[in-house]
Amino acid sequence: MQIPTNHTYLSKTLRNRREKLAKLIDFPTILWSGSSSSRNFPANTFPFRPSSHFLYFAGLPIEDAAIRLEGGKLELFMDNLSPSNLLWHGEIPTRDRLAEIIGADAAFPIKELKDYAANAATIYVQNPTTKITQCQILNRDIFPSKKHQKIDLELTKAIISLRLSHDDMALTEIKQAAAVTVKAHKAGMAATKNAKFEANIRAAMESIIISHNMTCAYNSIVTVHGEVLHNGEYYHPLQTGDLLLADVGAETTLGWASDVTRTWPISGKFSPTQRDIYDVVLAAHDNCIAQLKPGVEYLDIHLLAAKTIAEGLVNLGILKGQPEQLVEMDAHALFFPHGVGHLLGLDVHDMEDLGDLAGYEIGRERSSRFGLSFLRLNRPLASGMLVTIEPGFYQVPAILNNTETRQKYQHIVNWEKLKHFSDVRGIRIEDDVLVTTKGAEILTKELPSNTDVIESLL
């Protein structure tokens, strides 16, 4: 475990966070970190990643631990490593030392947690073993179970309100992740000339992240099949005429994420059709970022992206009609089916373990419309919020070859014209944008998105 050099600043920030929480709730809270999961035999585990809610208040990725919060105070519950564990994993700070680093008011062995669990709220951990422990210690079901106590939901809403806007320490971490991510993407572009497979470019990008002692914030997407939105395969050969879509982001040792996508031509030059579609997506990207500021509805940003893409496809002869009407009938979603972005923070899709509670303003529900059902964020923007802006264009066979879809939009899509753009499987352009009091700050602006500049980097 890497301990921050300025842990006085860390403990001060953590104390400020829990004092803010204490102003929102009047009951104790217990948050578990979770434990590592075995891949195939007990000692061979996946890399440990603590619950982000634990990490927000505890600051460090401490495994098999819990914290109790009440009245602005923090108590740490964990066990010191046994001598046998020290043999394999080396020395780590003791319970008392970790408590000092994070500014805890007291520290106890984990077995004593049950003595402090009365009337405590919690948020469930994705790790199933830990979730069982949570129910056993609290002697009840936990949210989102229908039998959960009301305080779990109250706690969830309180933590959402805190994590929606980022404090200075969080932004420092996120900017570090963004800077490394920019370097990774530039390395991927530079490696393209001599690469033979997607895996070669993935290796070039992830090696930069690893060399900065960071990890990937999510499974990298590095593919010539950009029409598969979360493609996790890297074996396809790179051929002249292909576009490569790279969605790769770094995560700092304290868990803060970046999330960036660029699309570039394997040959080093966009074809005329690829450039045409790319410029449509880039226009949507730029238009959306220009409108970001406090008070603006993120739904309106998404609809602006949809309208811009619809208008661009009309100008290219792919769609027929008025852009506003095309968006109303969800015609844009034939090629841009997902939302324009999401919250970003400790999680790459921040707080989506809570369903739509974080992404959607109270009283709003997810739409069932084809063009809106995948919108991850629907609330007014506020200063300190960090969002992604990631419009795209995709030719997804499951959508475009669907019989009902083709019949519904048979007079809206110029299917013959669309064939001329067969060398565009998928294009996405994504940046991380901080909402400020004055508008927006692009944290990943050092990574070019203009076609001419990208070609020069290749």
UniProtKB/TrEMBL annotation:
It catalyses: Release of any N-terminal amino acid, including proline, that is linked to proline, even from a dipeptide or tripeptide. It is an enzyme of class 3 (hydrolase). Its cofactor is Mn(2+). One of its GO terms (cellular component) is cytosol. Gene3D superfamilies: Creatinase/methionine aminopeptidase superfamily (3.90.230.10), Creatinase/prolidase N-terminal domain (3.40.350.10). GO terms for molecular function: dipeptidase activity; manganese ion binding; metalloaminopeptidase activity. One of its GO terms (biological process) is proteolysis. Keywords: Dipeptidase, Hydrolase, Manganese, Metal-binding, Protease. This is Xaa-Pro aminopeptidase. The lineage of its organism: Bacteria, Bacillati, Cyanobacteriota, Cyanophyceae, Oscillatoriophycideae.
